[in-house]
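To close the chapter, one final illustration. This time we ask the reader to focus less on the individual chains and more on the assembly as a whole: which components sit near each other, and how the overall shape emerges from the parts.
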Amino acid sequence: MSASFADSGILPPAIFLMGPTASGKTDLAIELCQRLPCDIISVDSAMIYRGMDIGTAKPDAAELARAPHRLIDICDPAETYSAADFRRDALREMAEITAKGRIPLLVGGTMMYFKALWHGLSDLPSADPDLRKALQQEAQQRGWEALHQELARLDPTAAALIHPNNRQRLLRALEVVRITGKPISRIWQSQRAQQDESGQIVEDYPYFTQWQADESSTLPYTVVQLAIAPSERRVLHERIRLRFLKMLDLGFLDEVRTLMARGDLTPDLPSMRCVGYRQAWTYLAEDGERDTLVATGVAATRQLAKRQLTWLRKWPEVHWLASETGQNAEKALKIISSRTTFN
RNA sequence: GGCGCGGUGGCAGAGUGGUUAUGCAGCGGACUGCAACUCCGUGUACGCCGGUUCGAUUCCGACCCGCGCCU
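The assembled structure is written out below.
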């Protein structure tokens, strides 16, 4: 079971396996690896961090030995990583896997990364920490409303789309205007226009045509998209609760203590704002109640799952699997073989 | 048994004779370089019965429940 797709004229296969946290993605992915010539690429903005194992529910050593995951443990928790970084890295790994005649299996719950990979990103400048710091200071002095008003002047379209309270996105939009001299919305639009001329718009999915970039950013693979989740929300909530308690048993707090003890990490870093880590940090730093830690940690995880499901609910071309059902690997294989020429 | 205090949406917690805080959780949603982020939207609930009143969660009475004190 291997083939060269490079010169066959057929796009090589790739599999997306998506789902909310605690839905059983990792187990299913490992099972698929036993049955298909595929290699796993993690699509997870938290598992990228080294030393963050228990709280991210990273596969353990035995599982990794059976089914290696690419793009985990690639960053130090002091570092930041972006959707653009992910797209670049994932494309590189996918090419490498495909070159070996194998199938890239992209597994994870970071929907923004899936979207960036699948649809590409507009040609925008990356984050500029110094500029962001300067903008933050400006906000301190002039007020956040003033910054939003400035955006309304420079880029009314973006300002209408970004709520004044959404400082993170407001800063990003201002950052782009200041660096490029062009409104971020115009950059989105110019690429949408190209899209229109090439006739690539998929009418059924207007949402996804909003930002699809030019041909070159289209993913050169035949993608089979699978999503897995419990069919009932309450079941997902219970799985989340049990898993959080299990993490605590496994020494999650020690893991966070170790991170805090480094001395160079702060609670506002992306890594330390991850679900569970943020709550554990507060609990340890403020000597909180254990019941509160559990309640807030579990709630934060539920909220994460809800946001992931919001993405997934409107995601086109997904084939759904139910976590609690047996035989998901068989079902997945059936879907995969019916949608690709592989085998 | 007597006296006192209190019973407000899933939880916490304000308050008012008519305009029905707030926080958390839940639910729905947005999201192009921090995305496990960030942000938006969403609930007439006032223990029970009767009375006063044009109108009662708010005033009065009885009752039930909880807490404290007393005999």
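Residues 290-313 of chain A form the longest helix (24 residues). The longest strand of chain A covers residues 222-229. With these observations in hand, you are ready for the problems at the end of the chapter.
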